[in-house]
Design brief:
about 475 residues, mainly beta, 7-stranded mixed beta sheet, 46 strands, about 0% helix, elongated
Amino acid sequence: SGASAVTTSGFGNLARGGTSAAGTFTITEGAVGNFVDGTVTVTPFSSAGVSGTGTTAVWFDPLSPPTATVTAGVGAVSASVSAGGVLTITFSGTDTTKIDNFTISGLKVKAGTAAALGPVQFRYTTTGTNLGLINATASGTLTTNTGTGVQSPTYTLAAGSPDFQVTNTLATPPISNATFVGGVTESVALTAAGGGSVTANFSTNHPSGTTFSQTVQAQWFPPAATVVDTTVLAALTPPPNIVLPGVNNQAADSLQVTLGDAGFVPAAATLTFAITTPGVQFSGLPTATGTGGFTVGTGVLSFDRTSITYTVATASTANAATFTLSGINYDVALSAAAGALVNVTLTISGGVAVSGSPAANAQIAQTIIGSAAAPTIIIGQNDQATGLLTIRESAAGTLPDISTSANDKIVVCLTSGETFSRAPWFVVTAGDLKLNVGGLAATQAKATLGSGNTCAFVQVYTASTVASTI
């Protein structure tokens, strides 16, 4: 009755840990009535045969809902992607007198951070629908030499390739025609699926390493995506460190780059780390260390101190080697926006793919002090009530605790000639910050007076993990 045809467009290269461009499947009946009402499920597999949503798998992105369209015929079609990354296509009311054509667009395919490199397989199963077999190409590589005449060389199946298929079951043994490099077609008998040995009366010599292929029919959509290597940028200890406006040389989290497979980032390549948050500069060069044999030269700090470039001296000799910047310090201008994340991008020369860029390794924070309605006080009188003061963190961890420095204090000072009659109380009214009372954590503490009773101070016992109010 004629096999149905599927063509693909889009998808392209899938960076490990990244997302592909949108892709489209176009499905065409090979003969009238091939499609009957039912469903088709399409599952992506890595070249190592792994599906699902794990670090070694590939899958359709469930956050990118597909659009199903009838382009010929009178049937209806719908499509959806499950949380597990499997595409389901449902046909109903298909036309039994005309060729039916459909498109499934808006799809995206994702690859895990450790997915096998190579082509992605799209395998399908049907329920009540005769989608038909799709033409595919099986390919393998000889691992031993052949001479002429009857030979039995071994071979390996290419990553992501379907198995070779028997095309003549009447022969003894059954044979499959395969095309070798140079266009030579040989009739070979396969003794093991997915690799093994072939037996044939070869007409010419084929050295080890020779590739050969065969057009087969399988329940696979044509390959339209390829997993490629990538680097991954990440801050090592989220949540990001807190830095304050108007303060220099403040510590930020370390940044780490996972470099992909051995040698993926080659010698002489450049890695540029650039701050994209206004008002933030590198205080100086951080410490740069590599693993797996990866080394770089001395970093070059840009004139405006917003980027640092490293040149690779030796490429990594191990998979998943890392390159880490530690001891990163920032100078933050008074004009920097409170609450903003300090984002750092990574660019690698030669178009090397980077996932996780930008990464945030600091957050700009500040405390905001405010007052309730201020009562009138009279000159020359003592022990007069003030308004209520409120100190509010703009981000968690803004106020440092005594583990950072025993000298860090929250200090409130009178600056226009008045003095405190007695020590006020500091009370945490929101968030989880704790105050230091005699070496114990507390939600309220009586302040200590200093500077001629013009200032009152307390210490933070544990910094907040939720922005707090005192």
